Amino acid sequence: MYSVTNRIMVKTGHGDDLEEVFSKRGSVQNEPGFKSFELWKLQKEDDHEVYLVVTRWESEDDFINWTKSASFRESHAGPHPDYILGGELANYDIKLSILSD
């Protein structure tokens, strides 16, 4: 399994805006090899808010194919919101996953 994260820094007070954007965008769940999407919020930062986007895929190829799809272009279209201070992508091969029954 393969996972991609995006650590997004947002101006204080705009976390709800980012959450709304993610709740309304895209159809990634319909892409081949897609496993899951999660949006995590860091509990405390003094001068900004931090979110982590976590997606899981069957394989790296499935993720790459999504980045070349119409679904990806649609979900990333439009102007870049000015409340986003930056992002940092990281890609992982998942070596161990333990799930509850």
Secondary-structure blueprint:
Elements: E1 2-11, H1 15-24, E2 34-41, E3 48-57, H2 60-67, H3 70-75, E4 84-93
Antiparallel strand pairs: 1-3, 1-4, 2-3
Question: What's the quick description here?
Answer:
This protein has helices at residues 15-24, 60-67, 70-75, and strands spanning 2-11, 34-41, 48-57, 84-93. It contains three helices and four strands.
Strand fraction band?
Answer: 35-45%
Overall shape: it is globular
What Rg do the Cα atoms give? 14 Å
Number of strands: 4
Report helical residue fraction: 10-25%
**From the helix content, strand content and strand pairing, which structural class follows?**
alpha+beta
- The average pLDDT value, as a whole number, equals 92
- Kindly report how far apart the N and C termini lie: 19 Å
What is the overall number of helices? Answer: 3
Major sheet, described briefly?
Answer: 4 strands, antiparallel
Question: Which residues form runs of ≥5 with pLDDT under 50?
Answer: none
Order of helices and strands: EHEEHHE
- Strand adjacency order, main sheet: 2-3-1-4
